[in-house]
Specification:
The complex is a heterodimer.
Chain A (H helix, E strand, L loop, with lengths): L1 H22 L3 H21 L3 H26 L11 H18 L17 H12 L4 H9 L1 H28 L6
Chain B lengths: L4 H23 L8 H19 L1 H7 L2 H24 L14 H33 L3 H4 L2
Classes of the chains: A mainly alpha, B mainly alpha.
């Protein structure tokens, strides 16, 4: 019960932060608030016993991306421009899509329901055979690196490709400015 | 921020512990939470912290860009190399059972190298993106 209350409180705080982000015109404040949002998200994930994901969220969402956004602000200036159109149309689309997604969650099995299809397919085998077959007690690592090794290779390739794309986009400019090294 | 003594001292104290924690997350990921991705991000965050406090030029001296760029590709090569090693030893691609006489040891060895590959690529990409973003527009001020 305490856990449900804590998660509800965290989600409420995340909603408040999201509204503040949407209303604020000061982009520096927005960056700091999105860092706070990530920390709340990480805490909620930790409360849901997803320690690996919580760690990633805290390090990437609150740490690295805050620094990168601050770097972008340094280049772009920290005041948001006035919107060119009235926001009603996009707001309607967002609310409609959000309601559709909420409606969709009613089709999902209840949270941590042991009879849910996802827990009845390959998960029992991972849980029973995983420690014996891989000798790795952390189930997340065993599934990620061994059973789903192909997927993780794909993910690593995605990270690699994204990095190469950023290098390709941002480096050309510096060459043009006569910065040949680096 | 390079003139603020409190930030400099705190950074000097914290960064070794951050790197140590990254190693712990990397090598203890079999038992506790964590793994290659998290460790790679923590390593990158420690260097980014160093760069924010001591300046981009200092970070580039500590972790030079050619090293970062080769890390971006090296991690994927290590990961795929584990798969090819499995092929050469008579198994399937990314089959870890053949990496050692004892299948369980083979699994652990495969997972170790795969996680190492993930950590190398992730920290390389994160650092490279930070260098690129931070380097734009201020090369002339901070390059020595």
């Amino acid at each position: 019960v305490i856990e449900t209350g804590a998660i509800a409180a965290l989600l409420a705080m995340m909603c408040a932060v999201a509204v503040a982000i949407a209303r604020s015109r000061n982009l520096f404040g927005v960056v700091v608030l999105s860092g706070a949002y990530s920390f709340l998200m990480a805490t909620a994930l930790a409360a849901l016993d997803a320690a690996d994901v919580a760690m990633t969220e805290a390090a990437v969402g609150a740490g690295i991306s805050t620094v990168l956004l601050l770097g972008a602000l340094h280049l772009a200036g920290s005041l948001e421009a006035k919107p060119a159109r009235r926001p009603e149309g996009p707001l309607f689309v967002v609310i409609f899509t959000g309601l559709l997604v909420v409606y969709g969650t009613y089709g999902l099995p209840a949270f941590s329901d042991p009879q849910a299809p996802i827990h009845r397919h390959v998960a029992p085998r991972y849980l029973e055979e995983g420690p014996k077959e891989t000798g790795v007690p952390n189930m997340v690592t065993a599934v990620l690196a061994s059973y789903r090794g192909y997927d993780t290779l794909g993910e690593t390739t995605v990270v690699f490709t994204a990095g190469i794309a950023v290098i390709a986009l941002l480096r050309r400019r510096r060459r043009k400015e006569g910065e040949g090294r680096a | 921020m390079r003139s603020d003594i409190i930030l400099r001292v705190v950074a000097k104290i914290l960064i070794p512990f951050a790197l140590m924690f990254a190693l712990y997350v990397q090598f203890h990921g079999d038992f506790g939470p964590g793994g290659g991705f998290q460790a790679g991000v923590i390593v990158a965050a420690a260097v980014v912290f160093y760069g924010v406090i001591f300046g981009l030029a200092a970070a580039r001296r500590a972790v030079p860009e050619p090293l970062v760029e080769s890390m971006v590709a090296a991690g994927v090569l290590v990961y795929a190399g584990v798969g090819v090693a499995g092929l050469l030893l008579g198994g399937n691609f990314l089959d870890y059972f053949v990496l050692d006489h004892d299948p369980v040891h083979g699994q652990q060895r495969g997972i170790f190298w795969v996680e190492a590959g993930v950590a190398i690529t992730v920290s390389g990409v994160m650092l490279k993106v930070f260098y690129l973003f931070a380097g734009r527009g201020r090369d002339f001020e901070e390059e020595p």
